[in-house]
Amino acid sequence: MKKKLRRVNNIKKYLTKRSNNVEGDYFFVSINTPKNINHGEWYLSTKLGKGSHDTMMRSICINSGLNFKDRSITNHSMRSTGIYNLVESGVTLDEQMTFSRHKTIA
After folding, report:
1. Does the CA dihedral 28-31-32-37 come out positive or negative?
2. Any idea what DSSP says for residue 54?
3. Which of 21, 25, 94, 101 is buried deepest, with most CB atoms within 10 A?
4. Given CA atoms 14, 17, 21, 23 in this order, what sign does their dihedral have?
5. Quick one: 2 exposed, middle or buried, by C-beta within 10 A (0-12, 13-18, 19+)?
6. What pLDDT is stored for residue 69 in this prediction?
7. Cα angle at 22 between 87 and 94, to 5 degrees?
8. What is the largest CA-CA distance in the chain?
């Protein structure tokens, strides 16, 4: 249970660090410059680009030792796994929708 709670707390921490004026309704936003991060501005208000998503997913797979040969691992995989973990952690539906930036249950 502690591990599941930590996952939820990590998402909540991320949400407190991202800009409140994000352009659009994107969960992942671009990372700011080191200088601005040192001033407490961690993220930009623009979405994280596809290339950055792909690089991030590849790095996560490599660093965690996952065998992703002949598999399609995408940012959507990460999003759906994240939502699954929220469900398993007992997070309310409203919170899940807030975290995932879904406007409807579908």
Report:
1. positive
2. H
3. 101
4. negative
5. exposed
6. 82
7. 25
8. 42
- Residues 31 and 51: their CA atoms lie apart, in Å, by 13
Could you read off the pLDDT of 55-90 as tens digits, one per residue?
877 787 788 888 878 877 776 777 777 788 888 888
Backbone angles phi, psi at 59, to 5 degrees: -65, -40
Question: 26, 15 in Cβ contact below 8 A?
Answer: no
Q: Which residues, 6+ apart, have CB-to-CB distance to 104 below 8 Å?
A: 97
CB neighbour list of residue 90: distance below 8 Å, 6 or more residues apart: 4
Q: Which DSSP symbol is given to 31? A: E
Separation of alpha carbons 50 and 74, rounded Å: 10
